[in-house]
């Protein structure tokens, strides 16, 4: 798969100083944590408060659906972000795009925190909310690719999975941070205060986190692989066009393999909170704690599965996670519907093990599927398309199925359907691990 690498590029892929490795690992983990914190506080607020703040003229059920629809709108901008950041990431460099995407996400998130509600400015409020959500999606479309490639391309030989996992842990880590902030707010103010102004605090806090992330990311060096591409003058002029021409099979397989992980992941991180509080009538604090525990399990399984993939290959680990995502959705909701905190925790832990196994090795796998000269474009676009097809409207679909059928098993069927589709794609993956080693 990497046959087009020049000697300089091939050598660069296995050389990086230990101190720089630590900095890159920290920058990938902390930076993506901040990016996904920004993304997830939107998801949490959409589940808890956006319906009443920006769609107050609708019924409660319709307002919830509208709020989840704005969540999905952000995903539509992801492929555009993947193409945009990917093009300049392959032309200008990985580092510059990491910084730009972080700044854009911060601006959009703080903007949501300052946004007037429907009662204050009318229909302009949801319109501006959608616009800011599109900016978040544009940022997220390129953030993952840059962070993943910086980690993987700095990694020593035989450890791409391990170092690639540092960008992956940003998803559950950002979710944990977002939920902890909402738990603190929930514990320190009443419902009226939270609805009036408390929900804005997590969005405004983002400005501090973005400052920290920029400080860390500005201190890392450019990817040694990209530096070698510049020296050898083999950068693609139109990288996305080259990917479509030379690697269409890999684009399709990578995109489809990610559908289940992102769909089921967003059912867990966005819909479950709304379902538990509004349908099952479980307290908001209890549901937040359940999601946090599941996120910790997700984080651990990401790291373990990524390291495992360095030993046995990417595909076997992916298969384990994909099969688990096929068989667990029905037991998942049966346990959640008991309203027992202990059983709900069991449900989310098993689910997130499946999510972790099908996500941990992803940075290394996607990087190894595409040549270095158009790697940012190929990896970012695949990730973004998979996210749109899977997670874009997963909470909205789940809420609509539950409302129309009156049973969570319809949501389980939806989760299983997406999992089967991705499992088929995983079966067609060509193992990249031995080539990389």
TrEMBL record:
Membrane spanning stretches: 36-55, 61-84, 96-115, 121-142, 163-185, 197-218, 251-273, 285-308, 317-336, 342-360, 381-401, 407-429
Domain of life: Bacteria
Keyword Transmembrane helix: yes
Keywords linked to the UniProt accession: Cell membrane, Membrane, Transmembrane, Transmembrane helix, Transport
Matches recorded under InterPro entries: MFS, MFS_dom, MFS_trans_sf, Sugar_transporter_CS
Localization: Cell membrane
Main location: membrane
Lipid biosynthesis among keywords: no
Pfam families per the UniProt record, alphabetical: MFS_1
Major facilitator superfamily (MFS) profile domain ranges (all copies): 24-434
Bilayer topology: Multi-pass membrane protein
Matching PANTHER family: SHIKIMATE TRANSPORTER
Protein name: MFS transporter
């Amino acid at each position: 798969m990497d046959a087009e690498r020049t000697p300089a590029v091939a050598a660069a892929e296995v050389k990086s100083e230990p101190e720089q490795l630590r900095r890159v690992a920290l920058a990938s983990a902390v930076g993506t944590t901040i990016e996904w914190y920004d993304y997830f506080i939107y998801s949490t607020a959409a589940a808890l408060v956006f319906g009443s703040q920006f769609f107050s003229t609708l019924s409660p059920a319709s307002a919830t659906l509208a709020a989840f629809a704005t969540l999905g709108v952000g995903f539509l901008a992801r492929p555009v972000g993947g193409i945009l950041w990917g093009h300049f990431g392959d032309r200008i460099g990985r580092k510059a795009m990491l910084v730009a995407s972080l700044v854009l996400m911060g601006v959009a998130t703080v903007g949501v925190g300052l946004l007037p509600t429907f009662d204050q400015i009318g229909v302009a409020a949801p319109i501006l909310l959608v616009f800011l959500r599109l900016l978040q999606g544009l940022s997220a479309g390129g953030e993952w690719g840059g962070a993943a490639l910086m980690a993987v391309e700095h990694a020593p030989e035989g450890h791409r999975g391990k170092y690639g996992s540092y960008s992956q842990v940003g998803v559950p880590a950002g979710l944990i941070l977002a939920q902890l902030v909402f738990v603190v707010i929930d514990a320190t103010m009443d419902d009226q205060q939270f609805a009036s102004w408390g929900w804005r605090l997590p969005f405004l806090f983002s400005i501090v986190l973005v400052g920290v992330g920029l400080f860390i990311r500005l201190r890392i060096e450019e990817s040694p692989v990209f530096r070698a591409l510049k020296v050898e003058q083999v950068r693609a002029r139109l990288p996305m066009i080259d990917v479509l021409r030379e690697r269409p099979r890999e684009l399709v397989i990578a995109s489809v393999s990610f559908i289940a992980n992102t769909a089921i992941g967003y059912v867990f991180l966005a819909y479950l909170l709304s379902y538990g509080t509004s349908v099952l009538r479980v307290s908001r604090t209890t549901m937040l704690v359940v999601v946090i525990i599941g996120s910790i399990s997700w984080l651990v399984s990401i790291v373990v599965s990524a390291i495992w993939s360095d030993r046995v290959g990417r595909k076997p680990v992916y298969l384990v996670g994909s099969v688990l995502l096929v068989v667990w959705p029905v037991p998942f909701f049966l346990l959640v519907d008991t309203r027992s905190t202990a059983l709900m925790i069991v449900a989310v832990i098993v689910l997130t093990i499946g999510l972790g196994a099908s996500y941990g090795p992803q940075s290394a796998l996607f990087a190894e599927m595409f040549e270095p000269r158009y790697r940012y474009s190929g990896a970012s676009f695949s990730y973004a398309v998979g996210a749109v097809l899977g997670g874009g409207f997963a909470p909205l679909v789940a809420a609509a199925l539950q409302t129309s059928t009156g049973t969570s098993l319809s949501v389980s069927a939806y989760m299983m359907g997406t999992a089967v589709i991705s499992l088929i794609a995983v079966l067609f993956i060509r193992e990249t691990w031995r080539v990389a080693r």
